[in-house]
């Protein structure tokens, strides 16, 4: 049984990990997962243990977090997913999402245009009847879309194959129809111009071509009207073209419908090209895995490989699942994950991530994650679902179109009716102007190109190794005025090295390093590891006794007959040892042997090679303030800040103090701007959550980083942040260009149409021409 508990008030990563572990060890519990972001505990438990599990969980939670409220969520809702095969209209997908979301019992509704899916959260009482209601809504907007419930994810090669066949067949059908309609239209016009055929013959050709080209549009308009949805592009096109026939502008009527369909065709191609671009980019999961079972190598689907199994990856193959290299050396192409062109080397004991291309040697890998939890799967899922988080501009355009269309229809009616009544004269000319007004006013250029631009922007960022979880975050990056950095692992390498040894009188550097290495030999702290790496010799731990770690001070140990203290100045003061203070910037380990000061070891963390250039480039592209937060001492913080030319730094901070500083900086930022925090994963989770935009650095292989942040930089390079903001600014620039182009040109043609200067041919350009221009402009983002 799957049961979900809400842990209201849980905000401690350490406690959540303990709760997850202890609950997972209870009798009958098969799996236990705490989601700190959602404050939930999800377990799979046997039926026999189900009755008593709630009280046991409450006891465990309150033993770590007494103030957390434990409530079992009553699962009254179910999640259902539907395939909308053939859906390629951003405008229609927004309407479907809205109308399905308004159905009784539906709590949430999300259409993913990239995956052509609809995902809903619906009450169990309405679950049985919801499918037919969804079909009705989808078919009212897109009659040719195939609706089917997704029971389980199909095998990947089949999905790819289906997508390609669907793409080709649809294109062929539409191309044939457009070509046939256009040919009949051209024949009719040629006979009229050159052969001077009678009007009935001309009309016959034009009506046949109109039915071929626009019959589906008119029928869709009729169906929508019968369901109470009047004001949409189908209605506009139908009324304006039929009206043009009525007033005798036969060629223009067919031309409007022809070019409208051409515009729709371009829209479809643009969406499919964007989808294909992202799909190709995300095509990092292999179709098969070679696994060793019972001494034999067999090829199976990666989904059927269990954790702990041995897989073989040959040169030229993609790594199917995350794991550890048991045998072999090779170079891995990580471009699809990180955007890096330089291959990485892997050896025995190194981590190998799914999605990387094996280039040189054969690798034997022991899997550490299931297929669905591997890095490649998580990245693909993140990018594919990014379009469900709409940017404010997208939401504005959708709302704008909803009110804009009825307004222009009413204005067109006033233009056709009021002037003849008020001014007198013939009705034909004013009705013609009204129809021109209708054609020009169609909002297709905006409702198509704006979502398409954000869609492409997320793909362009992914190509550079930057994962953006939604177009809302992509738009937010445009307004970032303050960027706050964590120091260790973000601006610096997070790899500590011994850079100097300062012995006291009577001791040599070698002796100081040896005593320090013996003292630190049982510790896993990064400082201890750096000292042991500098010593480079085997330590005889049999001579070491009475080892004690003194929290916040250092280490006490007996090395043979010698009493050794290794730690900070507080340890020296506590033990009443006279010492010489080291004034150099860095982490200091002071040594005392048998109560006598022996010397000091200086350890520093190296700044990343591109950190300084990244800070400079950020200021160049408009970031007003760069700030660093660190738990290190004042001298280290000041040294790094001065080297990188940061505007401000705060040192000696505890995790909760970092949140306080971010809140302080947030309160002082320019009104309307955003604050971004850049950290290196779960250690910075509270600050990542508090910032307007949380950015995780070095997300390659880090589940915690991908879970906690809004934007994930897949390498350890701060310069990726510059790439992210540049893509965001390019996306916003194209969006604004399309808004100005569409509204500007349409406004001009609406005025010209109302004045009688522009006719139907100009109206066609004002609608379809502008749409094609906007779509082509939107597709430029894919080249960024």
Folded structure, characterized:
- 49% of the residues lie in helices and 21% in strands.
- The strands form six sheets. A seven-stranded mixed beta sheet has the order 18-30-29-28-19-26-27, sandwiched between helices.
- β29 (693-697), α24 and β30 (711-713) form a beta-alpha-beta unit.
- It has six domains: 2-72, Alpha-Beta Plaits (2-Layer Sandwich), CATH 3.30.70; 77-152, Alpha-Beta Plaits; 166-278 and 389-452 and 766-783, no CATH class; 306-369, Distorted Sandwich (Calcium-transporting ATPase, cytoplasmic transduction domain A), CATH 2.70.150; 455-491 and 609-730, HAD superfamily/HAD-like (Rossmann fold, 3-Layer(aba) Sandwich); 493-606, Calcium-transporting ATPase, cytoplasmic domain N (3-Layer(aba) Sandwich).
- The protein is an alpha+beta fold and 784 residues long.
- It is elongated and about 120 Å long.
- Its EC number is 7.2.2.21.
- It holds the Pfam family HMA.
- The chain crosses the membrane at residues 174-195, 201-219, 403-423, 435-461, 739-758.
- It is a multi-pass membrane protein.
